[in-house]
Amino acid sequence: xxxxxxxxxxxxxxxxxxxxxxxxxxxxxxxxxxxxxxxxxxxxxxxxxxxxxxxxxxxxxxxxxxxxxxxxxxxxxxxxxxxxxxxxxxxxxxxxxxxxxxxxxxxxxxxxxxxxxxxxxxxxxxxxxxxxxxxxxxxxxxxxxxxxxxxxxxxxxxxxxxxxxxxxxxxxxxxxxxxxxxxxxxxxxxxxxxxxxxxxxxxxxxxxxxxxxxxxxxxxxxxxxxxxxxxxxxxxxxxxxxxxxxxxxxxxxxxxxxxxxxxxxxxxxxxxx
Amino acid sequence: xxxxxxxxxxxxxxxxxxxxxxxxxxxxxxxxxxxxxxxxxxxxxxxxxxxxxxxxxxxxxxxxxxxxxxxxxxxxxxxxxxxxxxxxxxxxxxxxxxxxxxxxxxxxxxxxxxxxxxxxxxxxxxxxxxxxxxxxxxxxxxxxxxxxxxxxxxxxxxxxxxxxxxxxxxxxxxxxxxxxxxxxxxxxxxxxxxxxxxxxxxxxxxxxxxxxxxxxxxxxxxxxxxxxxxxxxxxxxxxxxxxxxxxxxxxxxxxxxxxxxxxxxxxxxxxxxxxxxxxxxxxxxxxxxxxxxxxxxxxxxxxxx
Lengths: 273, 305
Hints:
The complex is a heterodimer.
Chain A (H helix, E strand, L loop, with lengths): L1 H6 L2 H25 L16 H5 L4 H34 L5 H9 L6 H14 L6 H24 L4 H9 L4 H30 L2 H6 L6 H8 L6 H40 L1
Helix pairs in contact in A: 2-12, 4-7, 4-9, 7-9, 7-12, 8-9, 9-12
Chain B lengths: L1 H6 L2 H7 L3 H4 L1 H30 L3 E3 L2 E3 L5 H8 L1 H35 L4 H9 L6 H12 L4 H8 L14 H11 L1 H13 L3 H9 L4 H12 L1 H16 L3 H7 L6 H9 L5 H33 L1
Antiparallel strand pairs in B: 1-2
């Protein structure tokens, strides 16, 4: 490793910094132009204003979209986390034939074109006679959230020391009691992290909501509708900035919790082993 | 401790283990995963089967004619519009996956080999933009590349050009730039994971045996990280071929992709079977392309060794 360090090319470090700048630069323009007085996003800024933010709570369509998004996000994150817990627990705890295939199938939405996932669900829902609503959006979001939930939860469940549960059972605790008093406290951070990740995905998801919703709009659908009008751009940028901040905060908390979960299962497992 | 444990619980255990079948590990594991598995079956596998079925049917106004036909596939593969859209989508997704992998490799390498104590901080920095709304990231490229956008006003401000260029937005290059940015994280993570697995002693051995840093990289590190490169390429290629938002927002007339045509068949044009045939064709062709990519990367890996 020290031999490697001598060869550490400084251009690699510069490249890394440039790359991170490339990742962040486009996103940074949203907040910058959301406080611009002019409607067209160009430099130099014509003046600084919070006017566009003040207008947001006075837009009834936006308020409705926010409530819809919250409702969909909360339902989708709870459902996908419950399904994720069952699957992640099964994958990390048991060995059985077909395990890899089933896991692959559950993770598949991650690598399929979203449009194809969306239209195929649309076809089935229309065939089943389900009318399109926020409920159908939730069903779609759960499908795309499960892979992320699984990823977070398996990393939290792995390294989980099984002997702790066995000890609890040996000491006379019922299966449910063991789960509630031993398993749950250890995996709680991973579960909360999964809830936050799924909520964020649902909050930002556009394609599936676009195809599967009836008349009710979620926030991304509302934004999509506003994008047609050039004059509404600053309002959209302001809303976008708020969404960026929300996603950022949620994901940071989720990441901290996921790490804590991983550390907890490993440390305590090591301590009691 | 052991005496007590062995002495008291047999009764309980006998009660809990009602049937040996339920106790078997396979059955328990399968029972636990079955709700999630069923969910994926009903909302993913069944829908895709329904799409495949529709692609062999025809539609007459609002009624579906269930007679088997290959007519939709004939249209999807021979009609110039669809053929062009398919080619363009494949070209764009191939270019984007090549670009993202090439741009992502050095940064994954940097984090894995030179990240030191800050490894997880770097990874976190890289994942954060990915968690922001896809729609908003595409929109910010529209702000940058637009006629009155950041790039044009900046270039005019610097005196490089005198009037806004229209060549930046509404074409396939704008789509390629936007997608390359949007999928960056997806390419970095798999490459990073495979680089982490590279046994560092092998690299040192190569250096000890007289290979220079470049040679040991090309003959040891790069071939060993090929699995990461393969999954990065596929994880970008397959979803981007069906991207809808980017072509719609920054693609203009010359950047329209197959997903926009598929959407039109389920929306305005209302020809579900044709839309289904276009979806199936896209999936089949992108899978073939993905397979070919895997073979090519493996061949290069073998040559490098």
